[in-house]
Design goal:
Layout: H1 2-22, E1 30-31, E2 37-39, E3 51-52, H2 55-58, E4 69-79, E5 89-97, E6 99-104, E7 107-112, E8 126-131, E9 140-150, E10 154-155, E11 160-163, H3 164-202, H4 207-227, H5 241-267, H6 274-293, H7 306-327, H8 333-356, H9 369-395, E12 439-446, E13 454-461, E14 464-475, H10 480-497, H11 503-517, E15 523-533, E16 536-542, E17 548-550, E18 557-559, H12 566-571, E19 586-590, E20 596-600, H13 602-606, H14 616-626, H15 632-647, E21 656-663
Antiparallel strand pairs: 1-11, 2-3, 2-4, 4-9, 5-8, 5-10, 5-11, 6-7, 6-9, 12-21, 13-14, 14-15, 15-16, 16-19, 17-18, 17-20, 20-21
Helix pairs in contact: 3-4, 3-9, 4-5, 4-9, 5-6, 5-7, 6-7, 8-9, 10-11
Amino acid sequence: MKNSVGKFLFLLLISSFLIFSCNENFSDRIQLDSGWKYSLENPDLEEVDLYLLNDVDLKNLQNLLPTREGTIYLTKTFILPSQLQKEDVSCYLGRISYSDRTYLNHYLIGSTGYDEDRRYSSGTEPRYYEIPEELLNPGVNTITIEIYVRNKGYLRSNAFIGLHDVAKNAWISDCFWSCHIYLVFGFVLLLAGIYCFKVFFNINQKKDILYYSVLCCLSVINLSLYYITEIPFLSFYKLYYGIFNKITACFIPANILVVFTLFLDEFFERKCSRLHFILRCVILVVPQIIYCFIPERFCYGFVSYIPYIAFLPGVVHILFVLIWELNNGKKNSFKLTLCVSPVVLCILFDSFVHAGLNINYLPYVSLWGWPISLFAVMFLISKKKIVELQEEVSKAVVVVHPSQQEPSYDSQIVMMPPQAALPLKKNLTLRQSPVLDNYEIAYCFKPFKNQAEDMYDFFTEENHLQGLALFETSGDSESLSHVTTLAKQVVVEKFVEGRMTPLTKIMHNINECILQEKGSAHNSLTGILIRVFDNRIEYVNVGHSPAFFRNGKGTKCMAIQIDSDNYAEQTEGEIGSKEITSDYKGIGFTVAAGDAVIFYSKAFETTANNQGEPFGQDRIRQAFLQSTGETAEAKLRYILDMFENYTQDNPVNQDLTVIVLQKK
């Protein structure tokens, strides 16, 4: 972040130098940034007294009008230099507020924003008028600018008369820095706002993302004051500029301050009471609403400063929070402070260059700071979410119990000899598995009836395994098939949507959606959901039998489970049940080539032999450890043969699903 701010400042200084260099006074220009005289009557129509206008008043024309509203006429005489005679000449006047009519030797050469009823135009809209050759005298010429002023009036930028190409290039440059750049900012912020809304509703329902998206959208409206004239399908002059200016420059910024304070509270996990929120809105927004309803003819003097004075409590609150969190060493507090620093830097730049050095032809960059800060905050939020996801995953690890560190066998459990001596029943056949580049999959699925109870799916992308799901439905037999089909649709949808969402959150979203969609059906599910990141696996189990992990060497085999009392609560949980909820726990572990994991449905564990003894988790673990095949298919075939040999011809009274996943 430090490097980003440094690069921004460096580029800003270089740009300023280039603009400064390109706007030096040349002998073939007639400078119009000083030497003006003014009157309140049209000097082209009658003889009036003209008063010398100093450079300070040129930026505050409203002070020359008794009611701060009306028309003022600026007049300047000049001698056309020989270099410009018989050349294509144009007039570049820069930014004028509000509207203007420009005359050369009593002839109208251009007008911007002038309307008999309203006469408003954006103060950031640069003026450029071509001058017909026949209007210019070889000797003395007079240029007159009729400016309509309402509480604000100015003639800014490095105005001049010069060669057509030079004046037009100056106008194009001014249009970009004064208008087009805000259109670019607005477009990018709109995309960022829409994207964050989508992220909030579909993936990560954290309020800081929601507040950030609202900030982006409000900022688009705020910046429209500067780019509204650049939208071709919108006739800006049909808008009532006074009200439009109050909304975009006062009311919207107040709301931005309110939302940004809420963003800070959420970002730093600060608690905000409802009373505190109401007070913020009252202090920041109510004065802006009152100001919007004050007639414009009264909006001068102290009244014109009401919106900006009302901003102070919000600014103070933001500074207090940032300083407080910095002092307490809150995580990301320094980075967030750096992200918002361009706002201050741009304001200081304008104060130094325009107010201090009086260099008016440089662009005003005060409003650049806020979009730049929002872009920086976007990257900070993205990085913060990724770190939170990594931390959540890293907190959950596979715990190896001492009793599981070496293979151990219960003396009462009689395991079958190696596969070569097993009777080959082969009643359970393997199904065709997807061919993948990063993992091997072998699985068996044998439905008990036409009414499915088990739901499994493999999530792949470009021959790479992204995840795996195994869910088992129970409850009302009439709606069993419907709920299983619903679960498959929901699991696929939520998994695909939640690529950057914690796996526990995805499981939570699955539960919420199934609860909502299944209606009154008395069915629930247990399930396992995993996500694969090359050599790392994330695992969430809700109410299902634990999966087993086997290392590639075949020396260890252990249940994938959390070593805590909370795990007992987790295994009792269900999906789609309001009565039995689950404390979702995530587990993350790394795998190497040859490492394998087995997942299975309840039927594989509970099917018994002739003596009524179920196959059980211990035998599953030992069979998995004992399997000597190098491939996932060989391991699964061995385990299934051992299962069939143990259970003999006893029926399997439920859907049976067994999946072996092995890292290549």
